[in-house]
Amino acid sequence: MTTSAKPGPRERLLLAAQELTYSQGVGVGVDALLKAAGVARRSLYEHFGGKDGLIAEVLRRSTAEDAEQYRVTMDGAGDDPRARLLAVADRLGRIAAGPDFHGCRYLAADLALTDPEHPGHEVTRAYRRTLRELFTAELTRLGHARPAFAADQLLILFDGLLATGASRPEDRPPATAARELAEFVIDSGLEPAASR
């Protein structure tokens, strides 16, 4: 008979915080986090130095997972840079329309963490730099006239899609409009022969 090892206090705290900070926001109380993780308060301070450290580590873990999902989505779309970027728009549209979608974890954290020196802000900034680099690389391969600027436009567009998706506009789901805008951003910087 085999038994699976129960995660240690650090991992349980991370798992609980990853779930609760998404469903309830980063303002979720320490007591709720400790209860969900089934750990003593001492574990929080031993492993993370306090709630701020835990929040930063949850954001670090989540951004790594999400950045990898962007890469998987793009790789699944093949080699064409345009198709790879539009696959991201399509995936985000499906995510935003999902029944368990509560908005973008990173936008919510940046808005809720009012201390500009909170370590979570550097994590979200690094995440956006990673996405900008991914998009810029694809737009460069595509031959876009202003790849870095277009990457910034896509980031703003995708943030808007996720923010609007959280408000659940039933009469006008944002995914279709976001995809058309993504096509415009991508195609507007291409030579006429290169555009689709």
Structural commentary:
The structure is a single chain. This protein is an all-alpha fold. It has a domain at 55-187: Tetracycline Repressor, domain 2 (Orthogonal Bundle). It contains 9 helices and no strands. It is elongated and about 60 Å long. The mean pLDDT is 92.
Task: Please give a quick description of this structure.
With 196 residues, this protein is mainly α. The protein has helices at residues 9-23, 30-37, 41-48, 51-76, 81-97, 105-112, 119-142, 147-166, 174-187.
Q: What brief labels describe this structure?
A:
mainly alpha, 9 helices, Tetracycline Repressor, domain 2, single chain
Overall 3D shape: elongated
The CATH topology annotation of the domain at 55-187 reads as Tetracycline Repressor, domain 2
Q: Compute the gyration radius: what is it?
A: 19 Å
Per CATH, which architecture of the domain at 55-187?
A: Orthogonal Bundle
Q: Please give the largest β-sheet.
A: none
| Extended strand count | 0
Structural class: mainly alpha
Quote the beta fraction.
under 5%
Q: Considering the protein shown, what is the CATH homologous superfamily of the domain at 55-187?
A: Tetracycline Repressor, domain 2
State the end-to-end distance. Answer: 59 Å
The H/E string reads HHHHHHHHH
**What's the rounded overall pLDDT mean?**
92
What is the name of the CATH class of the domain at 55-187? Mainly Alpha
Q: Helicity level, as a percent range?
A: over 70%
Number of helices: 9
- Low-pLDDT runs of 5+ residues are none
